[in-house]
Amino acid sequence: YTRQRILCCAAAGCQASGSLEIKRRLETVLTATGKLAEVDVIPVGCMGLCGHGPLLRIEPSGEMFEHVTPADAEDLVAALDGGPCTVPRCDRNAPFFTRQLPIVLRHCGRINPERIEDYIAVGGYRTLYHVIHEMTPAEVINVITRSGLRGRGGAGYPTGLKWATVAKSPGERKFVICNADEGDPGAFMDRSVLESDPHLVLEGMAIAAYAVGAEQGFIYVRGEYPLAIDRLQKAIVQARRLGLLGAQIFESGFNFRIDIRVGAGAFVCGEETALIASIEGRRGQPRPRPPYPAESGLWGMPTLINNVETFANITAIIENGPEWFANIGTEKSKGTKIFALTGKIRNTGLIEVPMGITLREIVEEIGGGTPDGSPVKAVQTGGPSGGCIPASLFDTPVDYESLAAVGSIMGSGGMVVMDEHTNMVDVARFYMEFCKEESCGKCIPCRVGTVQLFNMLTKVRNGQAKGSDLVKIEELCELMRETSLCGLGQSAPNPVLSTLHYFRHEYEQLIGAEG
Ligand code: SF4
């Protein structure tokens, strides 16, 4: 690019704050001043600092503006020529930007997600070409295995191992599924990636399909993400037109078609066997495993299921090599992780950080602490399956094993920050209510247990519980963990157990209030 560009965030968050109106107003002012022929106004994906939106960046200067309004258009156009501008600027040297390591998010906020040309201009589909023409499927799997990439959907299963299992499983047909049924409260990582860089995910899926021998893929995306669905649809059509998806990709013998399936909002459909049932047109309920989908998945065929962020890591690993990726992060948790920072935090938004960074660095440095400067009390990771980690453990490194050791999980990347005003019994009760509503009802421990736990927590909250009720709560949590059929019921007790462990005094105070 030699022209000046105004990059206008057009992801869902900034759109909701009026960014498209700002873009229109900028074009009007540029037209009136005769500058529209010299300046491009480009809608781009998420710039990360969502809570300060609408966001806008001027290139090539790199100046970034926050809380922009349509009335700022004249000032911003004046700023293109170095004129005075009173619009608040983002500090690009702030830890929010300098402490991140964007790999998956490297194009977000920089390209127009609705133009395949923009993706190709930054090297898009080059890796797929290279893979198809210069690598065998086994070599691709070998690279992913050596990189140490683990599934970013939450469980952290080794990606290369999963790919290898699907590749060697016999089947008339094989499938690749992208799990975009992001449902954790406070999580918007997958939505942001799909809204900002849909081709990156499609390319990762196509490489996976080549590696495992699949010709059909599905993206299962939740219906609450209309913008992501719209951009995915456009991206698939554009890629098909250019021969980058569909039959004879790059005029090779490799065929791969991707279709979208829109979920109806059931949280349990993020569980892989329920997701498969939903795509097959059946009620979205989990089934016992084994067999695992890698051996017997969609319509009984070997099926690779990875989440959005996992597929979005693939091109960078192949471009830069597995050693490059394996050198980022910790011994067992390689690469980076995207988190959605929400709750009582100054810099609400989307971040990508190297594994091994501490919770303190994320919450206090990148996140900027609480908006009013009061102490942070806890952070909740992993959504309804995760746990609450107290501030005293904020030096815990963010990796799969360390988070599990303190009673939480990595999860898919939701990170909800709580301050001193947050009552932890309320937090546990909120997540249990969520699980109660989302339980599919197939197995009794979860169907009944979530209701009972919610009622008991309500009793505690209302000051009607006795000390022995805490023991009953813990016993029921253990029972659900051990006997529920799927991860939803098995992990639903986690927020209760972690708050009981670290904040038991808050439960006891409420019981004490009753006398
Ligand atoms: Fe359904 Fe809950 Fe049982 Fe999972 S654990 S199968 S969500 S009832």
Structure commentary:
It contains 22 helices and 13 strands. The chain has 515 residues and is α/β, with parallel strands linked by helices. It has four domains: 4-92, Glutaredoxin (3-Layer(aba) Sandwich), CATH 3.40.30; 116-326, Rossmann fold (3-Layer(aba) Sandwich), CATH 3.40.50; 336-419, Ubiquitin-like (UB roll), CATH 3.10.20; 432-514, NADH-ubiquinone oxidoreductase 51kDa subunit, iron-sulphur binding domain (de novo design (two linked rop proteins)). The strands form three sheets. The chain has a five-stranded mixed beta sheet. The mean pLDDT is 96. The site of iron/sulfur cluster (SF4) has 14 residues, from helix 18 and helix 20.
Short recap of the structure:
The protein is an alpha/beta fold and 515 residues long.
List the helices and strands and how they pair.
Layout lengths: L3 E6 L2 H5 L2 H14 L6 E6 L11 E4 L4 E2 L7 H8 L14 H4 L17 H6 L4 H9 L2 H11 L11 H10 L6 E6 L8 H8 L1 H15 L3 E7 L3 H16 L15 E7 L8 H8 L23 E5 H13 L1 H5 L9 E8 L5 E6 L4 H8 L9 E6 L5 E4 L9 H6 L8 E6 L4 H15 L5 H18 L5 H17 L3 H5 L2 H9 L1 H11 L1
Parallel strand pairs: 1-2, 5-6, 5-8, 6-7, 9-13
Antiparallel strand pairs: 1-3, 3-4, 9-10, 11-12, 11-13
The protein binds iron/sulfur cluster (SF4).
